Amino acid sequence: MRADGPMVDPLQCVRRAGVGATSIRAGPSGPSGSEPAPSATVASVPDATSRPSDAASDGVGADGREPRSDGEHEAGARRRWGVWGAAALMAAMAGLWAYAFLAPQDVPGRMDDTAFPTAAEPVCAAAAGELAALPRSLDATDPVERAAQVDASTDRLEAMVDELATLVPTTEPEQQMVTEWLDDWRRYLANRRDYADRLAAGDIDARFYVDQSERDGRQITNALDRFADINKMSSCASPSDVG
What we know:
Elements: H1 10-17, E1 21-24, E2 40-43, H2 54-57, H3 70-102, H4 115-133, H5 143-165, H6 174-200, H7 220-230
Antiparallel strand pairs: 1-2
Helix pairs in contact: 4-5, 5-6, 6-7
C-alpha cells in the first residue's frame, strides 16, 4: 500500500542543495511484489583533516604573516650588521675627534718654563707703545724722509732686542729656543737697515725684503710672530710700520 501524497526524490533534494552526494542503493525490502525502496542518498561532508587549510596552503602562518625565506633572513642579518658597523665607526671617529681637541698638545716652540715670556711681554709692550708714537714711514713724502723714519723705529727695536737678550733662560731647551728667536729678530732688523739705506740713497723704487728662515723656508717674520703667539708674548711680534 502506497503512502498518500507525491513521492519526494531525495537525490533531487541533494542536487538542489548543491552538496555532493554518494548514492547508496538498498536492496529490495518489504513484502514480495512491493516496489523497491527508493534509493537513499547520504551527503558527503568534507573532512577537515583531509587537506590543509587555505591559509596553510597559501604559506601564511597562524599569525596571518607569511613566513620568511632563508634569503630574507640572511638579508635582514646583513642589514643589522651594517647598522651596527656604521654606529661603531661613528663612535670611534667621535672618540678620535674628542681626543684631538681635549688631549694635551705638544706644540713645537712652546716653552714649558714661562719665566721668559712673563718678563719679555712688558719689555715688548713698552717698545710697541713708543713705535706707535713715531711718524709712520708709509706716510713719508719722499725716500729720504722715509729712510729716516725707518731708522728711528729700528733703533727702538734694537734696544728692545738688546734688553730681551738679558732675559735669556739659562736652562735647556728654553735657552736655545730664545736664542734662535732673538737671532731671527736681529736678521729682521738688518733687513730694515738695508731698506733704509737704499731709500737714503735715493732709490724711489726700493722695496722692503725679508730674509727666509732656514728652519721652514718661510719669511723670518712668520717665525718671529709664531713664537711670540704660542708663548703668549703678543707685543713681541714683528711690527707692521714698514711696508
